[in-house]
Amino acid sequence: MSAIDRAAPGPEAAGPAPSVSDEVSAELSDQASNEVSDDEAARRWRLVLGRYAADELQVGQQDQGLERSLRYLYDREYTARGHRVGRGPGGSGEGGGRSGGGAGLGGSQPHGVDVTALGWLNEAGSLFPRETFERMQVDAVSRYGLTELLQDETALETLEPSRELAVAMLQVRGALNEQAASGLRRIIKRVVDDVVRRLRPRFTTAVNGRIDRSRRSMHRVARNFDWKRTLRANLGRVDAEGRMTVQDVRFSARSKRTLTWDVILLVDQSGSMAPSLLYSAVCAGILSGLPGINVQLYLFDTSVVDMSHLAADPVEVLMTAQLGGGTDIARAVRHAEQQVRNPSRTVVALVSDFYEGGSVSNLLTTVRRMASSGVTMLGLAALDEAAEPVYDQGTARHLAECGMEVAALTPERFAEWLGEVLS
Question: Which of 59, 111, 224, 301 is the 20 to 30 Å CA partner of 369?
C-alpha cells in the first residue's frame, strides 16, 4: 500500500500541514526525497493537505475521485472547528484557508457527482483499499456523525462490517434515532456472526473435554488425530526408500465432564472497554450453548447490571450495554462473590482495564477471600484497537498477589485457558 493509502483515512487527510501527524509527515518526507519523483511527492502532499494546498498544488485528473471522497468526509473536521473556506479562482470552492467572499463550508459539488452519504460510500469503496475504506467508515460514523448510512438499505449492504466499525457504532448508539438503531443492529449482527463462526470451534474443542490419550476412539475427527500411535501402527509398512504407507489411522478419545461449572463473567463497560465488551458478549453467548456450563454475565461501571438472561444473545447484550461512566470494580467483584454456590466449581473472569474508581483495598480483600475459598479467578486485561494490552499494571500486580491470575489473552487463548480449568 502506498504512503497516501495509509495517510488518507485520518482527519489530517483534508487539513493544513500542522494537522498532519509526525509519523505521516516523516514517512512522506522520506519518500519524497528518496523514493519518488517531485511530481509524485507533490501529488501525495496535495491529497494529504486537501484544499489548503489548492493555491500551490493542483489535483491531477486521475486523483479527482480521491480528492472528492476525502474532502466530503474530512472537511467536517473544519466545520467542527468553525473554519470558513474561501472560494478560489472562479468560485470553485477550492481556495485555501482564506475567509473572504462569504463562502460557506459545503465545498464544491461537481456536476453529476453524487455526494450524498450513500454516493460517497459507493465511490470511496471503489477507490480505496479495503483496509483504508474500513477506517474511513469508522471515522464517518463515530467522528463525523454520518449516521444516515445506517438508515439506508443500500448503504447497509455496502458497508464493510468489521470489529472496528461495530465498536465505533456502539460508542455512538445513544445518539441514534430508531431507524438508525435498527441499522446498527443489523451491522452488529453481521459482525457478531462472523466472530462466532471463528471462535465457536475453539471454545467447543477446549471446553467440551480434553483429549484422553489412553483410549482409542473410532470417531474420526481431525482434532483428535493421534500421530504418535498412527506412526507406531504403520511402522511395518515402510518401503526400502523409507516411505511409509499409512493404512491404520489412530484417533484419541476425549474425556467428558460430568459436573456442572458456574462461569461468572464480569465485564467493565466504561467507554474504553468497547472492543473487550464485544468479544466478552460473544464468549458468553458461545459458552451459554455448551453443556455443563452455567453462565452468569454482569456488566458494570459504578453499578452492576445482570445480563445473564440475555447471555445467549450477544447482539442484544451489545445493544443494551451502556458504554461510559465510572468504574467500581470492587462492587462488581463483591456482587460476584454473593453468587458463588460451589467455590471449587466456579470460575470468575473479570474483564477490565483495572483502573479502579472505587476502593482498591476492598477489591483486594474480596479477591483474596474468594481465592482462599477455592474460586478460580482470572483477570483479563483490556486490549486496544491494535490488540495491545492497556491496563493499570499496579492494580493488576496487586490482584495477582491476592490469588487472581491476570493475563492479556485473546479470545482464542481465553478458550484454551478455560478448557484447561474445566477439565
Answer: 301
